[in-house]
Amino acid sequence: MADLRVMLVCGSGASSGFMASNIRKAAAKRDLDIEAFARGESEIENYVSEIDALMIGPHLGYLFEEIDDVIGEADVAVVLMRPDYYAALDGDAALEHLLEAFSDADDAGTADDGSEAREARDTSDAEAPVAP
């Protein structure tokens, strides 16, 4: 089993499928055990209990805002992919962004009440969503 299971979503899973493949290649070059796969946005709820991270296509920015309703209490890091690397299908840059999100969550430590940080949500440098 992979150390990290990552689901990428776009409208139908097609473009995110190419990105998932490129992330797997980038992870293999770094000797990282990451399982990346793609699905359409309508399938998120079916996989929430099986993933560690959810990467959302930049054109689905609205979904990023509503993700709590979709994932509920699941311990899933959520990353809104950046348009620059998504458009280029740059798996190395996407992997780096994903790893940064987990690093940010680790740096955040615990909340004031002592509970663990539930999600890594990274919107830094994110541009306005692109219409589908």
Summary tags:
6 helices; single chain; globular; alpha/beta; 5-stranded parallel beta sheet; disordered C terminus; 41% helix; Rossmann fold; 132 residues
Number of helical segments with 4 or more residues: 6
Structural class: alpha/beta
Structural Rg: 14 Å
Shape: globular
So, CATH architecture? 3-Layer(aba) Sandwich
- The low-confidence runs, each spanning 5 or more residues with pLDDT under 50, are 109-132
Q: What is the name of the CATH topology? A: Rossmann fold
Organism: Brachybacterium endophyticum
Protein name: PTS sugar transporter subunit IIB
Domain PTS EIIB type-3: 3-108
GO molecular function, one term: kinase activity
Molecular structure report:
The protein is of the alpha/beta class. It has one domain: 3-Layer(aba) Sandwich (Rossmann fold), CATH 3.40.50. Helices cover 41% and strands 18% of the residues. The protein has 6 helices and 5 strands, in the order βαβαβααβααβ. It has a 5-stranded parallel beta sheet. Strand 1, helix 1 (14-29) and strand 2 form a beta-alpha-beta unit. The longest helix is centred in the last third of the chain and has 18 residues, at 91-108. The chain is globular. It starts with a strand and ends in a 10-residue tail after the last strand.
